[in-house]
Design brief:
Number of domains: 1
Radius of gyration: 16 Å
Shape: globular
Number of strands: 7
CATH class: Alpha Beta
CATH topology: Nucleotidyltransferase, domain 5
Strand order of the largest sheet: 3-2-1-4-5
Number of helices: 7
Largest sheet: 5 strands, mixed
Distance between the termini: 26 Å
Oligomer: single chain
Structural class: alpha/beta
Length: about 190
């Protein structure tokens, strides 16, 4: 398993815009990803969705933070199949299983690797409205970088860190073992 992909998405709109927590109703603005197979960093704007989906289909595993609950449902809107059929490692899900509740990527990254996110997702939506696509790409790419580093730290050490509400640094045991690769049928190519 060498084609592991760490990814993150940004959207053009918010849950308020679509009437509630309906990720499948949101529209993608930018997706950024790191591909272990060739050590490449890639960004995709909405007009490059077919290229992105083809690249994701070739993945042995998709790694993200809240990717199963947010990123993949948003991307499935653009996909003829179901991206959840690709093996996934959702770090937020693993942290929630260990800790009992969810915490922000920024809180985990800041405590674990000493570097957090560079902005907030709502800022990315505002940038989209202002036509500042490069700012969104830069922000999304930073999220992918910290996600990748947190993944690598957690996989190597079996734990990640965060600062709780009282300001105390806490350790969370995590299992970032990659799931078994299952055969995935390519659904975007014509037959």
């Amino acid at each position: 398993m060498n084609n592991i992909v760490v990814f993150d998405i940004e959207t053009q709109n918010t849950f308020d815009d679509v009437g509630g927590y309906f990720p499948e109703k949101l529209d993608v603005s930018v997706v950024c990803a790191y591909f272990y197979a060739d050590d490449s960093w890639r960004s995709y704007t909405i007009d490059k969705m077919q290229e992105l989906l083809k690249d994701l289909e070739s993945a042995d595993c998709l790694i993200g933070y809240n990717s199963i609950g947010f990123d993949v449902p948003v991307l499935n809107k653009y996909y003829a199949g179901d991206l959840l059929k690709i093996p996934q490692l959702d770090m937020l899900d693993k942290i929630r299983q260990s800790l009992g509740y969810r915490i922000k990527l920024d809180d985990v990254a800041s405590a674990t690797i000493g570097q957090g996110k560079s902005a907030h997702g709502l800022q990315a939506v505002q940038w989209w409205k202002e036509g500042k696509v490069q700012e969104i790409i830069d922000y999304c790419m930073q999220d992918v970088k910290v996600t990748k580093e947190v993944f690598e730290f957690g996989q190597k050490n079996g734990y990640v860190l965060f600062d709780d509400r009282m300001g105390e640094r806490r350790m969370i045991e995590v299992d970032f073992t990659l799931p078994e690769n299952k055969s995935v049928m390519n659904l975007t190519m014509g037959f």
